[in-house]
Request: fold
Amino acid sequence: MGRMNLTKEQKQKIEELLAQMTVEEKVGQMNQLSPSIVGGFDVSMEELIEMVTDGRITNEEFGKIMSQAERDFHEDEVRAGKVGSFLLNNPKKANELQRIAVEESRMGIPLIYGLDVIHGFRTTFPIPLAETCSWNPQVFEASAAVAAREASSHGVHWTFAPMVDIARDARWGRISESAGEDPYLGSVYSRAKVRGYQGKNPADRERIAATLKHFVAYGAVEAGQDYNTVSMARSMLHNGYLPPVKAAVEEGAMTVMAAFNDYNGVPCTVNSYLLRSVLKEGYGFEGFVVSDANAIRECVNHGIAEDLADASRKATAAGMDMDMGSNAYNSHLVQQIENKEVSMEALDEAVRRILSVKMALGLFDHPYAEEERMELYDGELNPEHRAVALDAAKRSIVLLKNDNILPLKKEAKIALVGALADDRDNCLGAWFADGRGSDCITVKAGLERAGAQVAYAPCCGVESELQAEELRSVAADADVIVAVVGETNAMSGEASSRADITLPGHQQELLAAALATGKPVVAVLMNGRPLALQWEHEHVPALVETWQLGVTHGDAVAAVLFGDYNPSGKLCATFPAMTGQCPRYYNHPNTGRPASKSKFTSRYLDAPLEPLYPFGYGLSYTEFVYENLKVEEQADTFRVTVQVRNAGSCTGEETVQLYLRDVVGSIVRPVKELKAFEKVTLKPGESREVTLTLAKKDMGFYNDEMEYCLEDGAFIFYVGGNSRDCLKEERRVAFEK
Ligand code: GLC
Reply:
């Protein structure tokens, strides 16, 4: 569980280093810096972050300062052994600093370079919320492996990914970076990402350390408001939010990043229940924990620390091993050790973990970025990597509605409208490390590259007025209107919660005007979160969710619109009918008055009972019929089989999903929980028996005392192509005591 797999000799070397290190040098290892900007506002990077965080400067001003200002790389502090890590994407500068650390500092301990390589380094892949809709662990792993190969060529040792936050509230902007709302699918995702980034041997030059973030329950911020408070029962934490973390620690994840939020009143940054009892002791995690940016300093804002010194003391005591950017440890920890406010044992534990990760990454053997690889991915996009991205992008697209409009004929005359259709930057999504808008194929370019007859006019931007005349003109002799609508990539991601998740601006008017022409209309959605699309669902005959797919966005969209790829994506997050339904997720408790037409049930007076599109939902150009569900109890498993038939006219891939309901428990249990899924590709008319296996040990849950409970009683097995439309069988189960 979470082992670093170090040899005896490597462990011995770490102990020898610890024995020789001064307190200052130990504290230095716990300090991560970003290059401070100078000449901008003459303030430190952390002050600048505060200024953009509290709105004293805008994101654009921040970006401009960063691009123009010189940087202070803290060479003297590196030479003095006061820096253990940098957040850096600059291979030449990385090697210069590394040479100082390795050859000029007293202990010669290499720096570890971290970066946000969230969905690709130079080759930008679909945002995580999109990629998870492929329900394909090979896709998850392959994109991470490409990102690791490219990032490591730039001297990056460590990515602050995967984000494994369970996200159930679409108002929260960071749902775009998540794997959605389900703990089982999230666990499949987190394991695959750790394998992709770290490989079997993280010391391999093309692999990088993974970070499980944000630990924990950041996706449960109250009201979907970023950085907000989080309160939940420990049973909900262990059943609903921790499984992807536990799974990825078992897969060998090397680092964890603590979340900004508090958990039940104690910020994760200083929460020893989470960092020590759950992660380090409970899960046996042997890597290190890094704070989120400036988060130790922000414990003062939380009101859990009086000042930075108090925050430093509390964070170390709680098991926070590395300080990202608040300079708390470098400012106070030496003194606190000397005053015995912090134990040398706690200090050594943190440093031992950091040195273990550096050792497991091979940094003591190969600390420098390889000159011959540095520019390998700086020119044209690598074609193999681009091909991996195209496969992921096609599989990430979800067909939400199709009233026999799609697929389009290649010879159709298309009126393409919506400014997003020709906007390369917005294909990148919320995080792009070395990604460039110029790398991206827009929807317009994708349709043209596919040989389509396209007449394009923007007609309406995400936040601009509708140009109705322009629409009438471009649509005049078209056979079909394709309207690209959605969000800019600045409307999701960090610090981008939205209180109204309908289409922004006048885009709904654009769709209405397109419909008013009487031509068939296809809405292509580009967005970073589930949107409230009730009106669109009721009026627009075809809706295609294409998210932000990265460099191959337009090629993937064209492949789906023309039927060259039959859409197979399935939603990993529920689409509410309206914002007021948030948070909305499928695996909820039944309550004493489950929603029904009756007034006195758990429902809204002014909203539908159901979400618009449920978890696991996604259409195909063909139709899959489910028959003959069988549930067979075996010694340690349930073997569930179902006949799936392709009743349509084209080959398609279906994701067959198995859900379980524990009807009666010692705490209330969700009405459904995803427990397994299998993919099957069927030709027209073909039928196949699909088998899904559920181990009996996986039919339990954690109670508030963190005890795993397997309780006899009735269980309902559901199988279908989404979480709503399922065949079902009930069984009584008695577990072996
Ligand atoms: C940000 C994010 C975190 C990211 C870190 C470094 O504030 O919360 O996900 O990895 O800072 O950029």
